[in-house]
Amino acid sequence: MVPTLASHEPYRYQSLPTETSIRVLRLEGTREGKFCTSLEFIDLADDPFFYALSYTWGNPHANGVDFTAHFNLVSGEYSSDSKVEILCQGKSIYIQTNLVDFLHELEASLTRADSFIKIHQNQEFRIWIDAVCINQDDLEERASQVKMMGDVYRKAAHTVVWLGRGDEYAKDAVTTISKIAAYPRDVFAQSKITPFRRQDPAIYEASNLLYTSWMEWCSLAAFFKRQWFSRLWIVQEVILSRELSLLCGSHNISWDKLVAAARTVEARCKVLGFSPSTLFMQAHEIAVALEHNTIQLARWREFYYATSASEPHAKIDFENLIYDTWVFSATDPRDKVYGMFGLMKTALKSKMTVDYTSPVEVVYAMTTKHMIEHYSSLRILSCVQDASIRRIKPSPSWIPDFSLPYFNMMCSNGFFHTAGRQHTIPQILPSSSWDRLKLKGHLFDTIVETGNDRTSHVNSSVLLDPSWFELCMLLSQPYQHTGEPRTEVLWRTLCANQTSDSVVPALADFGALFKELLSAMVMVRAEIESEAHAEAEAEQEAGSGMGPAPDCCTGFMDSLNRAREKWTLAEFDTLGRDEILQHLCKRPRFLSSDRHGWLMYTLAKLHILALTEDNPSTPSWEELEQFYHNPTYVMRRKRDNEIVLVRQDDERFSASFQKRYGKRKLFFTEKGYLGLGPASAKAGDVVAILPGAEGPFILRHGHPESDEEEERVMSLVGQAYVHGIMNGEAVEMEGFELQDLELA
After folding, report:
1. Label partner for 183 (CA 20 to 30 A): which of 120, 286, 688, 734?
2. Per-residue pLDDT reduced to its tens digit, 334-372
3. pLDDT tens per residue, range 67-97
4. What's the DSSP call for residue 76?
């Protein structure tokens, strides 16, 4: 804990002498068990010799699944109020534990022959460490130094990456990195090895590769799960540094060797079609491969140095860098922008300022406006996340929440042109305030029905949703806007008509994969109902329950038989195709109340789709019964008293669907369109087509933080996919009447 009465007088920072000056730290031994240091000024304009440190201020250890217990155990040591005193020119400075750990390792390394520190005889060892070399209490200095941090790492002779003190995994992790880096990449990629999994040594022997044990894979996972790898500031630190070495406790690893190991793992994962390392992610984390950040950093670093231009960073595109590094985190949410400042092009940097006195929402709003203006595009608006998950509140509805570790663009990869190819430049109007965005747009349609909101479910993308079929039944048959069968429109909308790699349009054989996926979902739903039925019966026998709900079935065949009975009882079996379309496929939605959520009613909806379409992409009763007896895909399996979800053998459709569907739901419009939009979308929301945006947006009348409706003021709910208008069809058909819109 920081004492209330320091044993030494506090160190007082002197003002930096020039605009290009920084402070650097020198180690001068210890006294009374405390590190003795000094700070001196150097001017970057003089091209001085110094090292720089890249690290994380807080707990540096691995966190997630097997590593959480240790992370929590040591967290107290790294809390913001658990600081340690060091002496700087005899005066007191308090630093956090992780930095103290580094100074201990640095002191020991300076005396070792194999030290990572390389100093010539005429040079002194000096190192730049942000926590000490910047006066953190002076917000003005802090802002000016943040602007210079790109130059600091660019000018440093060497950057030391401190991953934190060692643990039980560190030594094995370093040897595993060296081993995997030495694997012939092509051989490993084409082997039968699954990274981050326990496998028989014979599988490695078959490819003539040294065996990597389960514990070694765990150690590598623990290495990649160290907090440094997710820290936003490391992006510019790694990209700009001349030379890099990593230190984990006393273990030194070269950056090149780490990248080689990560790329070898990535090569195998590309062949496998999934990332096994996500096994080590916690349920609330985004399922990004552990090696992803290292590979992304390496690509940007190589891109930066691949040019012979006098200003290599002129080739770095700030917009793409923002998107590629969104998964990185920062303690101060403003640093999600400021942490990229050293990589901005001069033209964009001149328009932006670093100001830690500005509220987060102002920083994000001004950044969004600058990006729209600089790139003449509304692409950044595609990153606006659903309101239900935003952290920065209250804030304008039209700004992305950069503090979240993810976004999910759906229609911003250059394939769609909803406003037509002649309207690719946004028409931005002067705004009255920082929190308003004025622009011209076309209000095209209105949402009248929405699907169910499944965002609270961890596995929402594998749950059977009856509302899909209810909305599909409202569509004209065939779909009046494209002439396609309506069940094809359903699956194309669920995956935004693109592959997982954003290739448009989605392949025609996705329809068969969708049918197989739906069939497997039906079986999972039947199992869940069967388990609920058995549990309710047991509670009834024990005298603690009312028994199973009347429509809860004991299994798939029970659900199917009951659906057949009700179909006949209602005399629907006497209806022809046209009569079914006329009487059952219209608003209000068929069997859409909560009491109709049981599988037997979902089967009735699937039956309607099968009867009103030739060769539908949804399964018929006969196909489901055949699937039940001879399944081609079993999604849910019991393994060692646990229930696990299994991937489709051919997961091209499911991969694209899962990528697009998260935090979204289907909707049906007044003009008869089917769309996929934000989870917060509701009836009455407007489908808007905006010049400069690839896809349409869902807007809502009124201010997002007020019940009062201001004239012409709207809030942005999020981007959408609407089947049949994505290539300018609506503009060609109806014209493009633009009006002034003000987003709040």
Report:
1. 286
2. 999 999 888 887 777 788 889 999 999 999 999 999 999
3. 999 999 999 999 988 899 999 999 999 999 9
4. G
